[in-house]
Request: fold
Amino acid sequence: MVKNDKKGKHPQRALNKPTETKLVVKEETELLVFLLKNIPNKSRNDVKVLLRDRHILLNEKPVTQFNYLLKPDQTVTIRWKKAPEEQKYKGLSIVFEDAHLIVIEKQEGVLSIATEKQKDNTAYSILSSHVKKQHPANRIFIVHRLDRETSGLMLFAKSERIQKLLQESWNDTIEERTYLAVTEGTVEKEEDTITSYLVESKALIMYSSQNPAIGQKAVTHYQVLRKNARYSLLKVNLETGRKNQIRVHAKDIKHPIVGDAKYGAKTNPINRLGLHAWVLAFTHPITKEKLRFETEVPFKFMKLFE
Reply:
């Protein structure tokens, strides 16, 4: 005979409670609205706690934005047991790792790789120490870079072979590389493509030319997500990945990225560069699995549009 516990609850019921619940989205709606409708006996505060503590997943990735817009046929997973924490270091967190790759989310202010002036506390040095804890002979290889003041997703390889596989097949391997950019002023065109040839000056500043003989072709697609009288929030997709490409092209359309004095910005309302590597989707070079990572929209970005 099974006895009830002190609170009068039947222990067997706790054992039978599912570890997760999957729900299919039928119509476009905000995440919080969907959860309140589909999770019985949970208050608004209960659901917000689930979101805050990363119990809600979309396509197996935690989502914490209560107003995230869901699309039909997406699957929302409620994980009732707390998932293991992402491995965090000062300045970055590891969001995916296997025998071949590491995907991180880098904070603004962190260098991708060492310079003559700074050797330590870079994304590269932090990850190098991380893999050497697993085995002293382990090494890390950078696949692409983000500017120091740009936050968001970066991909690293765990061997030179994987690094070469990714870099040599970059255009075929990378399926989506999406940034968020906060620019000065109201961008009039709702969407557009900017094409130019980027050249680096002696002062190490990139600029656009229309002469293919002197620069590298750069193609940037953008879509306006939000705007007001002072700022615009752009979703930016890169067709090419040139140095400072988004920053130069934002200047070219006379809407420089906030906080980017190097490329013409006059304001810095969020005390950082308004550029974030939001989504990274690619085919795994070994397993051929389709991987997609999406970070939260920086709170400071959205605050400008409230």
In short: The chain has three domains: 18-79, 85-168, 174-306. The domain at 18-79 is CATH 3.10.290.10 (Structural Genomics Hypothetical 15.5 Kd Protein In mrcA-pckA Intergenic Region; Chain A). The two ends are 58 Å apart (CA to CA). The longest strand covers residues 216-227.
